[in-house]
Hints:
By secondary structure, the protein is of the alpha+beta class. It has helices spanning 2-17, 148-174, and strands spanning 23-30, 35-37, 47-52, 56-62, 79-81, 92-94, 104-111, 115-126, 177-183, 190-196. Strand 9 (177-183) and strand 10 form a beta hairpin. The protein starts with a helix and ends with a strand.
Amino acid sequence: MTLSRTANLMCVLVMLAVDSTAAELKMTALAGENVLLPCPCSKATDQVTWQIDESIVVNHYSALVKDNRPPADSFKDRSRLFMPNQKGNCSLLLFRVSSEDQKIFTCYTFVADEDMNKLNINLTVTEPKTRSNPSTDPPAGESKKPHAGFLVGVLLLLAVVSGVIGALLLRKQRQKIQRTVFMDPQAGLPIVELSPV
């Protein structure tokens, strides 16, 4: 029991002594959804710790110490590590993120108590946008007014159709013909004679 506390204390002291110029990624997630915080590590990694502000343990795994620290209460049932089941994957899966999770998460990976790596992930959590009727609401920044090009196209189409109809009516007026129907006395069939007026 004393050995595991000593090992944990040493891990924390090493983490505090690490230079604060670690790599930082920025990620965005929607509130209520799950988010995967990536943390690449080698297959030789035997310890991974995810923390917030050097004090809150989000999740932790160590092959060296069997008495692993439990995560903070707020992350107890909302986080999952892929270690030890997937060697080389020190990522953290957070379930049902909320605006309270908008923090900088730090991933510490250790290889045989010698090599330590640190990765900061700045997580931004946004509220999902709700729309009354997505099929009729315009996208952000657009209005419901028709586009000017659309209006020009409709007016041009109306002008062309009006011109064609006018030309057909004028042609019909010029070629007006008179029909005269005669009966063929021998066959008993009507005969149509067309003559211009």
